[in-house]
Design brief:
By secondary structure, the chain is α/β, with parallel strands linked by helices. The chain has 16 helices and 15 strands. The structure holds N-(iminomethyl)-L-glutamic acid (NIG) and fe (iii) ion (FE). Fe (iii) ion binds near residues 74, 76, 244 and 321.
Length: about 425
């Protein structure tokens, strides 16, 4: 009921149609944007706005910096409960692997997610999503992987779809049934992977709930051979793949994923040169997750210089999840990508726009400002694009235009 009320509210938001003037691009150019029927129809210097658009309603940007709507390309946003106790355990010296092996970690979120109803999951995920939206996120990936049984994976993915309708945000769903071994399959990994490939994935894909397929390929999760089995099942259904790869060790997962044309390989702290080459050849995006690196107090940096030298596009994301990255600010990740991983500011901004869109296969519609694309852009009360990476904890958003609506901010009529 609540959801339906908010859907109506999104539909009722003011249209962004008209001429947006008084904007500055990230490289400092004065900019104007024309929006019609929710689509960007023209973009350029304010002096050059074609006469046809002269009579349009105007929106004064007031000198704001404009960027494309942000894209958060790797999240586990829908889950029950929280895991602050593990935060405390890690402070006392326990490692992520030790906590997982002792029955905590992903499996404890699985218990809480199975216990929650779809509406309860919708309510908690809505709350978290609103933080991200208030910072200009216009497209987001949401993974399953805390259900690990057909009905509970379905519940998570249905919530992801409902969030899209409720908030008018572009949501890409990713099936991550191979996230961890559910307790009822202890010692029977092969049987569980068969279930994932032969029952869960085909059923959820048939229901239109799956846009891509992911696996956690790691010593504490699934092997390279099991990962390949899931990729084959995805391929058979025509679904693109991506991978949680080389987070804690070099399993060779990135090279395998690249062979399957993966959209992205994510985490990649332990990525090898061979993995980098394979990703470059396949056009696979490297998704950097500084929130997980920071939360786990990791010391193994992803091979940024080698990725840069190879020309592999680098995206940056929150990896929002209750265990390793309870992060609800994509701008904070931009800051961390610079301070922890030494990305340049323009690289980090590209990481949450153009490259993040590509990591989701959304490169034709999101991540850049261009004619013919749905109007998704953010006006920032900032002088200099470097401030997007500089402030810690400020939300300098002036206005968010999402899917052609003025979703947030001060340019509402
Ligand atoms: O991306 N690495 C595996 N999956 C998540 C963590 C999930 C969890 O601990 O609940 C990640 O970091
Ligand atoms: Fe993740």
């Amino acid at each position: 009921m609540e959801a339906e009320r908010v859907v109506a509210a999104f539909e009722a938001l003011p249209s962004a149609d008209g001429l947006w003037s008084g904007l500055r691009s990230v490289v400092g150019n004065d900019t104007a944007i024309v929006v019609a029927d929710g689509v960007i129809r023209w973009i350029g210097l304010p002096d050059a706005v074609p006469k046809d658009f002269a009579g349009l309603k105007t929106h004064d940007g007031g000198g704001a910096l404009v960027t494309p709507g942000l894209v958060d390309c790797h999240t586990h946003l829908v889950y029950g409960g929280q895991r602050a106790n593990e935060f405390a355990m890690r402070l006392a010296g326990a490692s992520y692997e030790e906590i997982a092996e002792a029955g905590g970690g992903i499996v404890s979120s699985v218990r809480a997610t199975r216990e929650a109803s779809e509406d309860e999951l919708l309510a908690s995920a809505s709350h978290r999503l609103q933080s991200l939206l208030s910072e200009g996120v216009c497209a987001i990936e949401i993974k399953s992987g805390y259900g690990l049984a057909l009905e509970h994976e379905r519940k998570q993915l249905r919530v992801a779809r409902r969030l899209a309708g409720t908030y008018g945000v572009t949501v890409c769903t990713t099936f991550l049934g191979a996230h961890a071994l559910p307790p009822e399959y202890a010692g029977r990994s092969a049987d569980y992977i068969d279930l994932v490939c032969n029952e869960m994935l085909p059923a959820l894909a048939a229901e239109g709930l799956v846009d891509a397929v992911d696996v956690f390929c790691e010593r504490i999760a699934f092997s390279l051979a099991e990962t390949e089995q899931v990729f084959k099942a995805a391929l058979a259904l025509g679904l693109p793949v991506k991978l949680h790869a080389e987070q804690l060790s070099d399993m060779g997962g990135a090279a395998l994923a690249a062979r399957y044309g993966a959209l992205s390989c994510d985490h990649i702290e332990h990525l090898s040169q061979a993995g980098i080459e394979a990703m470059r050849e396949a056009g696979t995006v490297a998704v950097l997750l500084p929130g997980a690196f920071y939360t786990l107090r990791d010391t193994q940096l992803p091979p940024i210089a080698a990725l840069r030298a190879a020309g592999v596009p680098m995206a940056v994301s929150t990896d929002h999840n209750p265990g390793t990255s309870p992060a609800l600010s994509l701008l904070l990740m931009v800051n961390m990508a610079c301070t922890l991983f030494r990305l340049t500011v323009p690289e980090a901004i590209d990481g949450v726009t153009v490259h993040a869109a590509r990591a989701l296969g959304l490169q034709e519609t999101h991540g850049t400002l261009a004619v013919g694309r749905p109007a998704n852009f953010v006006l920032w009360d900032l002088r200099d694009a470097a401030e997007l990476a500089y402030w810690l904890g400020q939300r300098p958003v002036r206005t968010v235009v999402r899917q052609g609506k003025i979703a947030l901010g001060i340019n509402r009529p």
